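<backbone_tokenisation>
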Amino acid sequence: MDDNAPTEAEYFGPTYLNPIDTSYSQKLFQLEKLRGGVILEVFNAHQAKIAQLAGVVAVAVFDRANTPRIDPAFVREIKTSVSIPVVARFRVGNDVEAQIIGISGADIMDENEMLGVIDDQNFIFKHQYNTYAEASPPFICGCRTLGEVFSRIVEGAAMIRIQGDSGGGRLAETVKNVRSIMADLRILLSLGDEEVSAFATKIGAPMDLLHLARKWRLRFPVMLWAAGGIVTPADAAMMMQLGCDGVFVGSEIFSSQNPIKRLKVTTFLMDNQVAPTPSANSYPNTPYYEKVKRTEKLRSGVILEVRNTLQAKMAQEAGVAALILSEPTNRTASRMMDPALIKDIKRAVSIPIVARARVGHFVEAQILDELGVDFIEESELLDVADEQNFINKLKFNASTSSPPFICGAQTLGEAFRRIAEGAAMIRIQGDLIESGSISKTVKHVKNLKADLRILYSLLDEEVSAFTKKIGAHIDLVWQAKSWKRLPVMLFASGGIATPLDAGLFMQMECDGVYVGSEIFKSSDPVARIKAIVEVVKSNGDIRVLNQHTVLASVTNKTDEAEPSESAA
């Protein structure tokens, strides 16, 4: 239990907790032993034993037949196989199932929408169990908003599960709801006493609960756990740094090659999470501009996507400026590359390495920082971890040893917003939904350059309206107008497969290009890469381009299809 956790005596004070009895308060205090832990979904006794061996604090039982009801005999079977607490689920509003689960030996009951809803108007009034059955287990309930959280607490929930989609496991949805609840709580803490009543009415919560949350400062009367899409140790650490008290992990983790190792790493990270608390003056400009200068070594260069050490060595031989790493196989979910493979490629070459992190996944970025990659690309090509927020790259820029960040953009407004967040280089990308058509990339580059020319031509009194129109930061817009260029480099990405493609973007005044790994399917990939490198170094000089027109047309059958935008 952490130092800021309320004492047992504090649970007995608030009037809402104690109108009839004190057993509910005892249940709240009972669940404190789970704080900072992992609750793992299991389908059988063998998985439960693995979970206990890996150090999880509890297991959530899911019926082996994948039915909406839990067999009490199955709950007892899991109970006899492990010594850690067992969580059993039942359908929303089903009092009879709750009673059966209560006598089955389960330590905690989860009123769970994933099993289905019996009463779509009412959740179980859990205080009746807390009152007449002192030995009954505590209840967990799922929520997506702050108003729902307080409503479930009023009904008697002793722990809240902040969830994403009821039927799915999208990390982005869970992150969105966690951030929304934490943001509303910060708003609550910032209110004056006279404003609390209106806020309570707005979210549909009782006044005494809101005052209790304000008293404990950024803490709820119950613990808040995250659930949905949490698969990797980095996912779990991200939720803890967002302010959650623990995480639920799905049984999909048993499909990994070494589930015990992954679970142990996850539980270790959970035990060692300290949320960062930077001061307002933590991000001076100097380290950021040092990172911008570090990207200058890539100017007039090619960043080539590679999937293994052999391709990395071929790319280095061909003279590319840097490598961007991509998974060797297509996974169902696209995440940060395996750290072991990143280390292998780093050992194989001496040129800079760019590694991708999911949008908004600051823990993946922290891991890549620790791995010592040269650049981190926050990439939309991977699954999005946070649909509302990009990583605050200024936190990383505060450290001179952290790598610079690269971000994608399709418009001038997006480019300015990513720079404001701390991006040291911008990748102008094509359409992420389609197959990487070069026409989309050309369109976005031309539109961005056209908007820049408009900015340069504006009168000083017109800059403010232009800034508002594109949704940018006024100081960055003024800087670009003064310098007659963006403060960072622009690389083109998407559909670039030949020397002529690269020359096209260099003549459009890009600072470099990305090339996808499809180039390795050509009949002579090293020769083609060398030709693209020479064209880019010459900034698209027509004489150099003329020397390599043959390579623009020499293809094998695998080149005939337009390349996908895998390096966007």
Summary: The first helix runs from residue 23 to 31. Residues 9-271 form a domain with the TIM Barrel fold (CATH 3.20.20.70).
